[in-house]
Each structure stands twice: as C-alpha cells, then as structure tokens.
Amino acid sequence: MSDTTKRVLLAKPRGYCAGVDRAVVTVEKALETYGPPVYVRKEIVHNKHVVETLRERGAIFVDQTDEVPEGALVVFSAHGVSPQVHKEAEDRNLRTIDATCPLVTKVHMEARRFAKEDYDILLIGHEGHEEVEGTAGEAPDHVQLVDTAEDAARVEVRDPSKVIWLSQTTLSVDETMERVDQLKSRFPMLSDPPSDDICYATSNRQYAVKTMAPQCELVIVVGSQNSSNSKRLVEVALQAGAKASYLVDFAHQIDPAWLEGVSTVGVTSGASVPDNLVMDVLAFLAERDYLDVEEVTTANEKIAFALPRELRKDLKTG
Q1: Bridge partners for 294 per DSSP
Q2: Which residue, of 29, 30, 263, 282, has the greatest Cβ tally within 10 A?
Q3: How far apart are CA 272 and CA 11, in angstroms?
Q4: Is 301 labeled as catalytic in the residue annotation?
Q5: At a CB cut-off of 8 Å and minimum separation 6, what does 134 contact?
Q6: Residue 163 near residue 120, CB atoms below 8 Å
Q7: How far from the centroid of its chain's Cα atoms is residue 69's Cα?
Q8: Is there a binding annotation on residue 185?
Q9: How is residue 306 annotated by DSSP?
Q10: DSSP 8-state class, residue 19
Q11: Any idea what the Cα angle at residue 67 is, between residues 66 and 71, rounded to 5°?
C-alpha cells in the first residue's frame, strides 16, 4: 500500500451540540461572574478534558448536593436532575443554576404530563445514567426503565391502552426503535412521544457515521467512556460496515497497530467533545501520512440555546 492511498474521512456534524455548549459556557460564565469556587453537581458534560479544564479554573465537581456547603452556588449538569435534587438544594439554601439541556427538559415535561394523565411510562435508557435518573425522578410511581431486551420482555403495565414510551436523548436511534418494536409487539396500543426524544445532535452524528463507515477500515471516535452518545457512535460505525472502531479521549491513546493496512480512517467525536481534540487526532494521523482529509457533511446545525435564566439575569445586571 503506497502512502498516497491514505486518507481521512472527517464526519460533519461532530463534537459539541447546543446543549453541551450552553452547559460549558454556563460554568465558564458563572466562574467569571461570581468567582471560584463554583460547585457543579456531577460532571457538567461527560468529557474528561472539559471537566479537567473547568476544574483548573475553579469549578468543584461533586456527586451529591449535600457535598456543597450551605448557601453556596451549584450548577446542575446538562443531563438534568430530579425534583428531589432541587428540593435538597432548596433545603440547604443553595443558589442554583440549572444547565439542564432544553431537550432533556422537554422529556422531563413529557414525563410529568403523562404521569398526571395516569399513564404507565416506559423509559428506554441505560440504567444508572444521570439523565435517566433525572427523568425517572419526575414521576417515580409511573416510570419503568427499559434498558435491555429482557427488560422489554418482562415489563408489566396496568392498562395496555394507557402506556407511552419515552427515551434517554443520547441513545442509538436504531437500538431505541428495536426496543420500541419489542414493546409494541407486547402492547400494540403503546403511544409514541409527542415529539422525537432522541436529540437532533445524537441523530445527526450517528447518521454522519453511518454515511462514511462503509468506506472506512477504521473509525476513531473521540469521546469519553462515560459518554453514552460517544459509545453509541462506535457501535453505529461497526454496524454500518467499518472493520474496526475505537473510542479515545486523546490522540495519544491511538494504538499505531490499529492503522496497519488501513487506507481510510473515519474520524468523528461525541456531542460533548471540543474540536481541538479532533484536530489533535488529525495531526496524529498526518504524522503517519494520512494527509488527505475529506469532510463528509450530512447536516448543517444552526441550533443555539440561551443561557439559563438565573445566569442571564446576573449577566444583565452585571
């Protein structure tokens, strides 16, 4: 194989979505406006580099609300929190900034609405994920989690005519619809959400990978192991025809052995990944003669979300 045959297909869209950008900027602006420390419940977004960068600037990440000193400022992460967490913060007299992604908030509102109408809600998502905990916490008596095929086979509902499915926003579109089909085979009257719960950015990034993967022997996904949407991109790449796919946080984690005999490398990144980490991967590949970089564009994203109102108010007066 001559070096001239080596090329990179670079997915677009990739990287930061509007919800992640809003959450990260929220912490940055809070640090600028109020000064450190600013407490953040859980990781603001699931990316090692982003969390470490904010930690260096004075953000303190905690697992639970009771780790925040009484009266201090705490930012809730992009994944959302349950009403119970809001109450805990109120009980500790904490100043809160809610950086929940508006698309996650939409799912929370759907959960509240259908619980009020006494529906059984089947929430498709990954057990233990922060977003799932937050959504389920909106209506714990009505929500049942459906993670695996086994869950779909054994879940029970009170009234098969009053059941709806909702989903975590960062799942694989195909896997989610597989669960929905399983559930509909058991509950033919299962209602769909009023609007698509899988976030636009998750869908777009998966579609871009599906488009380029058949041409790639290897797809490198930049993202962290605890990032659901990043891990799904690896799965999507393999299902779409890539011979191999790996998830890395940083370029130096790429094993040169992965590149042996590979002429076309696909590169993409999860929705919580800053693009400089992708540029580092391209530089790593360029050093190994992958100099021809072709962007594969499947969508142009123009969505932006306003900062949380609590922060906007202080930015205005400041």
Answers
A1: 9
A2: 30
A3: 15
A4: no
A5: 79, 80, 81, 82, 85, 100, 104, 108
A6: yes
A7: 29
A8: no
A9: P
A10: H
A11: 75
- The helices-and-strands tally (H runs, E runs) of the chain is 11, 12
Which residue of the set 43, 110, 130, 131 is catalytic? 131
d(CA 250, CA 159) in angstroms, rounded, equals 49
**Which of these, 90, 155, 74, lies nearest to 121 by C-alpha position?**
155
Q: Is the dihedral of CA 77, 80, 84, 86 positive or negative?
A: positive
d(CA 267, CA 255): 15
Residue 293's contacts (CB-CB under 8 Å, 6 or more residues apart) are: 7, 8, 10, 282
| Residue 235 tokens, joined | 């799965």
Which pLDDT score, from 0 to 100, does residue 165 have?
Answer: 98
At residue 315, the pLDDT reads: 86
Task: Give the pLDDT of residue 4.
Answer: 57
Q: pLDDT digits over 97-156, tens only?
A: 999 999 999 999 999 999 999 999 999 999 999 999 999 999 999 999 999 999 999 999
Structure tokens at 218: 């290897």
The response to whether 272 counts as a known ligand-binding position is yes
Give me 289's structure tokens: 């003669």
The residue assigned the tokens 């967490």 is 85
The whole-model pTM stands at 0.94
State yes or no: 227 annotated in a binding site.
yes
The mean pLDDT value for 58-85 works out to 97
Please provide the DSSP assignment of 182-226 as one string: HHHHH-TTPBPPSS--S-HHHHHHHHHHHHHGGG-SEEEEE--TT
For range 236-250, the mean pLDDT: 98
Extract the tokens encoding 65.
């609300």
Residue 2 has pLDDT above 80, yes or no: no
**How far is residue 288 CA from its own chain's centroid?**
31
Any residues with CB less than 8 A from the CB of 138 and at least 6 apart, and which? Answer: 82, 83, 108, 111, 112, 115
What pLDDT, on the 0 to 100 scale, is given for residue 313? 85
- Tokens of residue 139, six digits: 């209506």
pLDDT tens per residue across span 257-312: 999 999 999 999 999 999 999 999 999 999 999 999 999 999 999 999 999 999 99
Mean pLDDT within 180-185? 98
